[in-house]
Specification:
alpha+beta; binds flavin mononucleotide; 4 strands; NADH Oxidase; about 10% strand
């Protein structure tokens, strides 16, 4: 079966880390992206999300620097080189592989979050926060299912927030914009505290979990890391029974 326009767009969306800094993204477009994000499903339609639109260059630089520092720790120190080579084995040219590893271990790969023109940074950064007190109130407490008054839980907020994020990334792609989801600057407690403080996020009720850089891509990019096909990731009825399309 041929892919239709939506499926082609889903498959062609790539993480964009080089932006055309001569073009800003209008508030109108950002509004559309966030609006589309809000159409994501959420448990009991609680919409446990908030988005901070970061246009302030100093804030972008601060958040981007956190990403760079974390990347140096993560890829430069904690991840063995063989593991980096394994993960990047889809890059066939030796020179490109070396370059990618270099920019990972030096943190340079994440300079784009700072939004600076010299490093092709993104003009806008969206910070997604989720409600950590996310509980349903329409159902009696069900033992062992998470929430205090209902069955929703902070875990549901992470799931719903992730769906909202993907909606925003796809909406941006549909509008001709590039995005990159990033978590590296937010997966450490101290980083969350500092970033939350700068942005006024009321921890621990609300928690920033992901960032999305938004801008016009500097280069057209549709090829990316390969995906496992359904026959490798799907089963029919039982874990070890491959799902295959019958002719
Ligand atoms: C939860 C999550 C966290 C991610 N964190 C980062 C990150 O910190 N920095 C980054 O540049 N990309 C990050 N990415 C983007 C992935 O690296 C990228 O989506 C993946 O390599 C597949 O590439 P593609 O989106 O171009 O297909 C993240 C994506 C997700 C979903």
């Amino acid at each position: 079966m041929e892919d239709n326009e939506v499926i082609r767009m889903i498959k062609n969306r790539r993480a964009i880390r080089d932006y055309d800094t001569s073009k800003d993204v209008s508030d109108e477009l950002i509004y559309k992206i966030i609006e589309a994000g809000g159409y994501a499903p959420s448990a009991e339609n609680q919409q446990p999300w908030r988005v901070i639109v970061v246009r302030d260059k100093e804030l972008q630089k601060f958040i981007g620097q956190k990403a760079v520092e974390r990347t140096i720790l993560l890829f430069g120190r904690a991840t063995p080189r063989e593991e980096l080579e394994r993960r990047l084995s889809y890059i066939k040219s030796k020179a490109s592989l070396e370059r990618t590893i270099d920019i990972l271990i030096s943190g340079a790969r994440f300079e784009y979050i700072k939004g600076e023109p010299e490093t092709d940074g993104a003009p806008v950064l969206l910070v997604l926060c989720i409600d950590q007190t996310h509980v349903g109130n329409s159902q009696p407490t069900l033992r062992g299912t998470g929430g205090v008054y209902g069955w929703s839980s902070p875990r549901h907020a992470v799931i719903a927030g992730s769906m909202m994020m993907q909606n925003m990334a796809l909406a941006a792609a549909a509008l001709g914009l590039g995005t990159c989801v990033s978590s590296v600057q937010l997966d450490h407690f101290d980083d969350i505290e500092e970033i939350s403080d700068k942005l006024g996020v009321p921890l621990p009720h609300w928690k920033p979990i992901l960032c999305l850089t938004v801008g016009y891509p500097k280069f057209e990019r549709t090829l990316g890391p390969p995906r496992q096909p359904p026959e490798e990731i799907a089963f029919l009825n039982h874990w070890d029974k491959p799902f295959e399309v019958k002719e």
